[in-house]
Amino acid sequence: MAKTVVVIPTYNEIGSISGVTERILKTVPEANVLVVDDNSPDGTGQLADRMSADDPRIHVLHRTEKNGLGAAYAAGFAWALDRDYDYIVEMDADGSHQPEELPRLIALLEAGCDMGIGTRWIPGGVIKNWPAYRKLISRAGTAYARILLNSKLHDLTSGYRGFRADSLRTIDFGTVNSQGYCFQIELAWLFERSRGRIGEFPITFVEREEGVSKMSTGIVVEALAKVTGWGLSSLIGRAPERLALPAAGTAR
Q1: 30-67: per-residue pLDDT in tens?
Q2: Greater confidence, 143 or 178?
Q3: Helix, strand, coil % (nearest 5) of the chain?
Q4: Are strands 198-202 and 32-37 parallel, antiparallel or unpaired?
Q5: CB 33 within 8 A of CB 5
Q6: If phi over 0 gives left and psi between -120 and 50 gives alpha, with beta otherwise, what is residue 112?
Q7: pTM to 2 decimals?
Q8: What strands lie across the sheet with 87-90, from one edge to the other?
Q9: What SS3 state is found at 126?
Q10: How far apart are CA 119 and CA 234, in angstroms?
Protein backbone atom coordinates (compact mmCIF):
# COMPACT_ATOMS: atom_id res chain seq x y z
CA MET A 1 0.00 0.00 0.00
CA ALA A 2 1.29 3.47 -0.89
CA LYS A 3 2.67 5.46 2.01
CA THR A 4 0.68 8.70 2.34
CA VAL A 5 1.12 11.84 4.44
CA VAL A 6 -1.23 14.81 4.67
CA VAL A 7 0.66 18.09 5.22
CA ILE A 8 -1.31 20.76 7.11
CA PRO A 9 0.23 24.22 7.70
CA THR A 10 -1.08 25.98 10.80
CA TYR A 11 -1.03 29.41 12.34
CA ASN A 12 -3.55 30.00 15.13
CA GLU A 13 -5.74 27.00 14.25
CA ILE A 14 -6.24 25.66 17.78
CA GLY A 15 -10.01 25.53 17.33
CA SER A 16 -9.97 23.28 14.26
CA ILE A 17 -6.75 21.25 14.01
CA SER A 18 -7.85 18.45 16.33
CA GLY A 19 -11.15 17.87 14.52
CA VAL A 20 -9.62 18.02 11.05
CA THR A 21 -6.87 15.56 11.99
CA GLU A 22 -9.36 13.17 13.57
CA ARG A 23 -11.48 13.21 10.40
CA ILE A 24 -8.43 12.57 8.19
CA LEU A 25 -7.34 9.53 10.16
CA LYS A 26 -10.89 8.20 10.36
CA THR A 27 -11.26 8.49 6.59
CA VAL A 28 -7.80 7.15 5.67
CA PRO A 29 -6.56 5.22 8.75
CA GLU A 30 -3.32 4.15 7.05
CA ALA A 31 -2.26 7.75 6.33
CA ASN A 32 -0.02 9.96 8.45
CA VAL A 33 -0.55 13.66 9.21
CA LEU A 34 2.18 16.29 9.42
CA VAL A 35 1.26 19.54 11.15
CA VAL A 36 3.62 22.36 10.10
CA ASP A 37 3.17 25.04 12.72
CA ASP A 38 4.58 28.56 12.32
CA ASN A 39 5.02 29.25 16.06
CA SER A 40 1.32 29.92 16.61
CA PRO A 41 0.81 32.18 19.64
CA ASP A 42 -2.54 30.53 20.41
CA GLY A 43 -0.92 27.19 21.31
CA THR A 44 -1.71 25.25 18.13
CA GLY A 45 1.79 23.77 18.05
CA GLN A 46 1.60 22.58 21.64
CA LEU A 47 -1.80 20.99 21.01
CA ALA A 48 -0.36 19.23 17.96
CA ASP A 49 2.49 17.91 20.12
CA ARG A 50 -0.03 16.40 22.55
CA MET A 51 -1.93 14.83 19.65
CA SER A 52 1.33 13.38 18.32
CA ALA A 53 2.17 11.89 21.71
CA ASP A 54 -1.17 10.06 21.68
CA ASP A 55 -1.06 8.83 18.05
CA PRO A 56 2.11 7.77 16.18
CA ARG A 57 0.47 8.65 12.87
CA ILE A 58 0.57 12.36 13.77
CA HIS A 59 3.82 14.32 13.39
CA VAL A 60 4.67 17.97 14.07
CA LEU A 61 7.19 20.25 12.38
CA HIS A 62 7.77 23.46 14.34
CA ARG A 63 8.99 26.54 12.50
CA THR A 64 10.30 29.54 14.39
CA GLU A 65 8.35 32.24 12.58
CA LYS A 66 5.44 32.92 10.26
CA ASN A 67 6.96 33.59 6.84
CA GLY A 68 4.33 32.44 4.42
CA LEU A 69 2.25 29.52 3.23
CA GLY A 70 4.68 28.66 0.45
CA ALA A 71 7.62 28.31 2.82
CA ALA A 72 5.54 26.20 5.21
CA TYR A 73 4.52 23.80 2.45
CA ALA A 74 8.08 23.62 1.09
CA ALA A 75 9.33 22.66 4.57
CA GLY A 76 6.57 20.06 4.94
CA PHE A 77 7.24 18.59 1.51
CA ALA A 78 10.99 18.33 2.26
CA TRP A 79 10.20 16.55 5.56
CA ALA A 80 7.95 14.06 3.77
CA LEU A 81 10.38 13.41 0.91
CA ASP A 82 13.18 12.71 3.39
CA ARG A 83 10.98 10.00 4.93
CA ASP A 84 10.12 8.26 1.64
CA TYR A 85 6.38 8.80 1.49
CA ASP A 86 4.85 7.83 -1.86
CA TYR A 87 1.98 10.35 -1.88
CA ILE A 88 2.08 13.80 -0.32
CA VAL A 89 -1.21 15.64 0.18
CA GLU A 90 -1.78 19.25 1.18
CA MET A 91 -4.92 20.66 2.73
CA ASP A 92 -6.04 23.53 4.96
CA ALA A 93 -6.37 23.26 8.74
CA ASP A 94 -9.53 25.34 9.03
CA GLY A 95 -12.06 22.74 7.89
CA SER A 96 -12.69 24.29 4.48
CA HIS A 97 -11.38 21.12 2.79
CA GLN A 98 -13.33 17.98 3.57
CA PRO A 99 -11.17 15.04 4.74
CA GLU A 100 -13.93 12.68 3.63
CA GLU A 101 -12.98 13.50 0.02
CA LEU A 102 -9.39 12.29 0.46
CA PRO A 103 -9.99 8.84 -1.10
CA ARG A 104 -10.96 10.49 -4.38
CA LEU A 105 -7.76 12.53 -4.39
CA ILE A 106 -5.60 9.54 -3.57
CA ALA A 107 -7.35 7.56 -6.31
CA LEU A 108 -6.07 10.08 -8.89
CA LEU A 109 -2.49 9.49 -7.72
CA GLU A 110 -3.00 5.73 -7.77
CA ALA A 111 -4.22 6.08 -11.35
CA GLY A 112 -0.88 7.64 -12.32
CA CYS A 113 -1.45 11.38 -11.95
CA ASP A 114 1.60 13.40 -10.95
CA MET A 115 -0.72 15.86 -9.23
CA GLY A 116 -4.37 15.79 -8.23
CA ILE A 117 -6.36 18.97 -7.53
CA GLY A 118 -9.61 19.33 -5.65
CA THR A 119 -11.52 21.84 -7.75
CA ARG A 120 -14.38 24.18 -6.88
CA TRP A 121 -15.10 25.43 -10.38
CA ILE A 122 -16.12 22.29 -12.28
CA PRO A 123 -19.50 20.50 -12.32
CA GLY A 124 -20.08 18.96 -8.92
CA GLY A 125 -17.97 21.56 -7.10
CA VAL A 126 -19.76 23.32 -4.23
CA ILE A 127 -18.92 26.38 -2.13
CA LYS A 128 -20.73 26.88 1.16
CA ASN A 129 -21.04 30.08 3.22
CA TRP A 130 -19.21 32.37 0.82
CA PRO A 131 -20.88 35.69 -0.03
CA ALA A 132 -21.31 36.50 -3.69
CA TYR A 133 -18.40 38.96 -3.77
CA ARG A 134 -15.95 36.27 -2.54
CA LYS A 135 -17.07 33.93 -5.29
CA LEU A 136 -16.72 36.72 -7.83
CA ILE A 137 -13.18 37.57 -6.69
CA SER A 138 -12.13 33.92 -6.78
CA ARG A 139 -13.67 33.24 -10.17
CA ALA A 140 -12.19 36.43 -11.65
CA GLY A 141 -8.72 35.67 -10.26
CA THR A 142 -8.82 32.12 -11.59
CA ALA A 143 -9.98 33.28 -15.02
CA TYR A 144 -7.23 35.92 -15.16
CA ALA A 145 -4.54 33.37 -14.26
CA ARG A 146 -5.86 30.82 -16.76
CA ILE A 147 -5.78 33.35 -19.58
CA LEU A 148 -2.36 34.84 -18.77
CA LEU A 149 -0.75 31.44 -18.21
CA ASN A 150 -2.62 29.63 -20.99
CA SER A 151 -3.72 27.08 -18.41
CA LYS A 152 -6.38 24.40 -18.83
CA LEU A 153 -6.74 23.90 -15.07
CA HIS A 154 -9.99 25.10 -13.51
CA ASP A 155 -8.87 26.04 -9.97
CA LEU A 156 -5.26 27.21 -9.90
CA THR A 157 -5.54 28.59 -6.36
CA SER A 158 -6.99 25.45 -4.76
CA GLY A 159 -5.07 24.28 -1.72
CA TYR A 160 -6.52 20.75 -1.70
CA ARG A 161 -3.92 18.79 -3.67
CA GLY A 162 -1.91 15.61 -3.81
CA PHE A 163 1.42 14.77 -5.42
CA ARG A 164 3.36 11.68 -6.33
CA ALA A 165 6.61 11.99 -4.40
CA ASP A 166 8.80 11.18 -7.41
CA SER A 167 7.28 14.12 -9.28
CA LEU A 168 7.58 16.49 -6.33
CA ARG A 169 11.28 15.63 -6.04
CA THR A 170 11.93 17.32 -9.38
CA ILE A 171 11.16 20.74 -7.91
CA ASP A 172 13.86 23.03 -6.57
CA PHE A 173 11.87 24.87 -3.93
CA GLY A 174 14.68 27.37 -3.66
CA THR A 175 13.38 28.82 -6.92
CA VAL A 176 9.70 28.75 -5.88
CA ASN A 177 9.44 31.88 -3.76
CA SER A 178 5.74 32.69 -4.02
CA GLN A 179 3.55 32.87 -0.93
CA GLY A 180 -0.18 32.57 -0.29
CA TYR A 181 -2.37 31.59 -3.19
CA CYS A 182 0.39 32.49 -5.61
CA PHE A 183 2.39 29.50 -4.37
CA GLN A 184 -0.47 27.26 -5.46
CA ILE A 185 -0.62 28.94 -8.87
CA GLU A 186 3.12 28.68 -9.44
CA LEU A 187 3.32 25.02 -8.46
CA ALA A 188 0.37 24.01 -10.64
CA TRP A 189 1.78 25.96 -13.58
CA LEU A 190 5.17 24.27 -13.23
CA PHE A 191 3.53 20.86 -13.42
CA GLU A 192 1.28 21.87 -16.30
CA ARG A 193 4.08 23.41 -18.39
CA SER A 194 6.13 20.27 -17.88
CA ARG A 195 3.31 18.14 -19.24
CA GLY A 196 2.75 16.46 -15.93
CA ARG A 197 -0.34 14.32 -15.71
CA ILE A 198 -2.83 16.35 -13.65
CA GLY A 199 -6.23 15.15 -12.51
CA GLU A 200 -9.05 17.31 -11.16
CA PHE A 201 -12.07 16.30 -9.11
CA PRO A 202 -14.93 18.40 -7.70
CA ILE A 203 -14.88 19.27 -4.01
CA THR A 204 -17.17 20.83 -1.44
CA PHE A 205 -15.46 23.91 -0.02
CA VAL A 206 -16.81 25.23 3.28
CA GLU A 207 -15.84 28.65 4.60
CA ARG A 208 -14.02 28.39 7.92
CA GLU A 209 -16.04 28.49 11.12
CA GLU A 210 -13.02 28.80 13.44
CA GLY A 211 -10.20 31.34 13.43
CA VAL A 212 -9.47 34.21 11.07
CA SER A 213 -8.83 34.08 7.32
CA LYS A 214 -5.20 34.53 6.27
CA MET A 215 -6.22 36.37 3.09
CA SER A 216 -4.67 39.83 2.84
CA THR A 217 -4.19 42.63 0.34
CA GLY A 218 -0.52 41.70 0.08
CA ILE A 219 -1.36 38.14 -0.97
CA VAL A 220 -3.72 39.39 -3.68
CA VAL A 221 -1.21 41.96 -4.96
CA GLU A 222 1.56 39.34 -5.07
CA ALA A 223 -0.61 36.96 -7.08
CA LEU A 224 -1.64 39.61 -9.59
CA ALA A 225 1.91 40.87 -10.05
CA LYS A 226 3.52 37.46 -10.42
CA VAL A 227 0.86 36.02 -12.71
CA THR A 228 1.09 39.09 -14.94
CA GLY A 229 4.88 38.81 -15.02
CA TRP A 230 4.84 35.10 -15.83
CA GLY A 231 2.27 35.61 -18.54
CA LEU A 232 4.25 38.38 -20.22
CA SER A 233 7.47 36.38 -19.89
CA SER A 234 5.83 33.44 -21.65
CA LEU A 235 4.84 35.66 -24.54
CA ILE A 236 8.43 36.76 -25.09
CA GLY A 237 9.94 33.34 -24.44
CA ARG A 238 11.39 33.94 -20.98
CA ALA A 239 9.20 31.71 -18.88
CA PRO A 240 10.80 29.73 -16.03
CA GLU A 241 12.45 26.42 -16.89
CA ARG A 242 10.22 23.38 -17.04
CA LEU A 243 10.52 20.51 -14.62
CA ALA A 244 12.13 17.24 -15.63
CA LEU A 245 9.26 15.02 -14.50
CA PRO A 246 9.67 11.23 -14.41
CA ALA A 247 8.93 9.54 -17.70
CA ALA A 248 5.90 7.76 -16.26
CA GLY A 249 4.17 11.07 -15.73
CA THR A 250 4.72 12.74 -19.08
CA ALA A 251 1.47 11.64 -20.73
CA ARG A 252 -1.27 14.18 -20.13
Answers
A1: 999 999 999 999 999 999 999 999 999 999 999 987 77
A2: 143
A3: 40, 15, 40
A4: unpaired
A5: yes
A6: left
A7: 0.88
A8: 58-62, 32-37, 4-10, 87-90, 161-164, 115-119, 198-202
A9: strand
A10: 25
